[in-house]
Specification:
CATH architecture of chain B: Orthogonal Bundle
Order of helices and strands of chain A: HHHHHHHHHH
Largest sheet of chain B: 2 strands, antiparallel
Helix content of chain B: 55-70%
Largest interface: A-B, 22 and 16 residues
CATH topology of chain B: Arc Repressor Mutant, subunit A
Shape of chain B: elongated
Helix content of chain A: over 70%
Shape of chain A: flat
Oligomer: heterodimer
Structural class of chain A: mainly alpha
CATH class of chain B: Mainly Alpha
Order of helices and strands of chain B: HHHEEH
Number of strands of chain A: 0
Number of strands of chain B: 2
CATH superfamily of chain B: Winged helix-like DNA-binding domain superfamily/Winged helix DNA-binding domain
Number of helices of chain B: 4
Structural class of chain B: mainly alpha
Distance between the termini of chain B: 30 Å
Largest sheet of chain A: none
């Protein structure tokens, strides 16, 4: 891989708007200097940081939900999560969707529909690791002992060792893909509705403040 | 040549960039080499341009007319005021610290 290709890849770590403004200049500076590992790291880290700065709230929340799912799945694959952790694990997603709906209306001055849509999009991003895992599972690229988080210890199993000897928890690839086809739109729809509730709460609070001001 | 500064607020990329272009408009590469000369700080290109974009957003520097692919930047009046405030605070802190060191 030559220097120009590496520079092009590094510049791609920045968001499009930022690249349009500063991409040419940064490319020029990188061309003038020897491209060491520390310079490449500096450019890549700042690129990711700029992406975070330029990202919309739903993108950050979606990434957070995805990360939560990845960490939870990884932990559960290493050692079993206790029952209370299973029970509460997926409660983060609805809370996040509620918060997105609320914040989009109260802080970003968006409409109720836009807020609900943002919650739906965040949920879609958040569920991507599970979809990816299901695809890898269905295509036999990962061993089925990697746990799915959509269950409880009684239906899914406790960690790798228990799951290896379980018979009822492992789905066929076709069953898994069919479940995903239903799960993804269902999740997005639920997130949309929860986002709608969050937005409605924000609207009600703002309306009650307005009423209180009028009364005074 | 000025004394080399290596740590703390003195090495904030934003402050170093503002100090560099205080003497006149400069493009990114010139800012980087100037900072390396007067402060002994090697700013990475990613750090440099992230700081430049923040300074432009804050209205403390602004781009001038492009020269080829390089675009020079200059201080705005707000940027100049901010730099003066920061440097005066530093001078106050430095004087205070030096006085206390002498008295100790």
């Amino acid at each position: 891989m030559n220097k120009e290709t590496v520079i092009r890849i590094l510049i791609r770590t920045y968001p499009t708007d930022w690249r349009l403004e500063y991409g040419d200049e940064l490319t020029q500076v990188l061309t003038l200097r020897p491209l060491t590992l520390s310079i490449a790291g500096d450019v890549a880290i700042n690129g990711i940081w700029q992406r975070v700065r330029y990202a919309e709230a739903w993108q950050l929340c979606g990434a957070g939900m995805a990360l939560w799912l990845i960490v939870g799945t990884a932990l559960n694959s290493i050692s079993p999560l206790p029952q209370w952790a299973y029970n509460h694990f997926f409660q983060l997603d609805p809370l996040m969707c509620l918060a997105i709906g609320y914040v989009y209306v109260s802080h970003h001055a968006k409409g109720v529909f836009a807020a609900a849509l943002a919650a739906g999009k965040a949920s879609l991003v958040g569920i991507l690791p599970e979809v990816l895992l299901a695809i890898l599972w269905a295509t036999n690229l990962v061993h089925p002992t990697i746990l799915s988080m959509s269950g409880t210890p009684s239906t899914i199993g406790h960690g790798i060792t228990d799951l290896c000897f379980r018979k009822d928890g492992i789905m066929s690839p076709a069953e898994m893909l069919a479940e995903m086809l239903l799960l993804v739109p269902f999740n997005v729809l639920i997130a949309f509705l929860i986002g709608l509730i969050g937005a409605a709460i924000a609207k009600s609070i703002s309306a009650s403040h307005w009423l209180l001001r009028r009364v005074r | 040549m000025a004394r080399k500064l290596t740590a703390g607020r003195f090495s904030d990329p934003e402050l170093l960039i503002l100090s560099s272009i205080a003497e006149g408009q400069k493009h990114g590469y010139a800012i980087m080499t100037d900072i390396s000369t007067f402060a002994g700080v090697q700013l990475g290109p990613g750090t440099l341009y992230s700081a430049i974009s923040r300074l432009v957003e804050m209205g403390w520097i602004e781009p001038c007319e492009e020269r080829g692919r390089q675009r020079p930047y200059r201080l705005t009046p707000q940027g100049l005021r901010h730099l003066q405030d920061q440097l005066q605070q530093m001078r106050y802190l430095a004087n205070l610290g030096l006085r206390r060191l002498r008295e100790a």
